[in-house]
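Good morning C.,

I know you're traveling, so I'll keep this short. The sequence:
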Amino acid sequence: MATRQSTIDFILEQISEAGVVSARKMFGEYAVYCEGKVVALVCDDQFFLKPTNAAKAFMKEYEEGYPFPGAKAYILIPGDKWDDSQWLTQLVKMSAAELPAPKKRISKPKSGVKKK
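The tokens, ready to paste straight into the viewer:
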């Protein structure tokens, strides 16, 4: 089951005060970005936050889940917590602050040069 657009729209609206937030669709699921960093995944209409020390300390008690088979464990944010915009925003902001900046992509030269 793929994530519904309405789910991702709601989550992005709830965390809009965390900074520059966006989502990118990947294989029917979504990566959630804050300030250019992937902070979470939304898979099967479930919100999986990257496990940072700040998030774990803030939540104190949390459940781990796996966004897809073979994935590392993430913090599963229960749906009833999504309604608390201030709480969710703070959680995303502190997680993003702890995550490293994305690596710069290096462009490869275009192949396709014709040989004579």
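Safe travels,
E.
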